[in-house]
C-alpha cells in the first residue's frame, strides 16, 4: 500500500512539473510551444489557461492527499515496527540465559564448544551439589527435631516414673506408719491388761 501511494505521488509530481512549465508566465508567452501562438491552440488562449490551471489544482490536491496518506502509512509502519521491537525484546528477555551449545557449533571452534560444554557441566554439578547440601541440611534438621522429640518424650516418661516412685514411697511410708501404730496399740493394750490383772489380784487378796 505504501509503495503504491508513493508511485502515484511521484507520477503526480512529474505531471505537476510538466503542467507548471506549460502555463503562461507573467509577461512571457509559454504557449508558443503549441504552435504559432496561444490563439491558435485547440482551447484558445483563455481555454488553455483555464484547463492547465484546473489540471494543476487537481494534481496539487492529489499530491497533498497522497502526502497525507504517506505520512499516515509511515506512522503506522513505525508503530508496528516499535511493537515488533518490544515483542522481540520481551522474547529475548524471557529466553533462558544458558543457550544450548549445539546452536553455536557452526560459529565456534570445537575447543570453544568443549569449554562451553564443560562450563555448563560445572554449573550443573554446582547446582546438584547445592541441592545435595540443602537436602543434607534438611535431613539433619529433621533428625535433630526427631531426636529432640524423643528426648522430650523420655523426659516426660522419667518425670512420670519419678512421680510414680514418689507415690509408691509415700504409700509405703504410710503403710509402715500404720503398722507401727497397730503395734503400739497392741503393746498398750497388753500393758493395760497386765495392770488390770494386778489390780484384780490385789482386790482379791484384800478381801
Describe, in short, the structure shown:
This protein has 207 residues and is mainly alpha-helical. The protein contains three helices and no strands.
Structure description:
The chain has helices spanning 2-22, 44-94, 110-206. It has 207 residues and is mainly alpha-helical. Among the domains are: 2-94; 172-207. Helix 1 (2-22) runs antiparallel to helix 2. The longest helix has 97 residues, at 110-206.
Major sheet attributes: none
Quick one: overall form?
rod-shaped
Q: What proportion strand? A: under 5%
Can you give the mean pLDDT?
A: 78
List low-confidence stretches.
30-43, 101-106
Helix content: over 70%
Structural class: mainly alpha
Beta strand count: 0
Order of helices and strands: HHH
List the total number of helices: 3
- State the distance separating the first and last CA atoms: 162 Å
Rounded to an integer in angstroms, the radius of gyration calculated over CA atoms is 61 Å
What is the secondary structure topology, with strand pairs?
Layout: H1 2-22, H2 44-94, H3 110-206
What are the salient characteristics of this protein?
mainly alpha, 82% helix
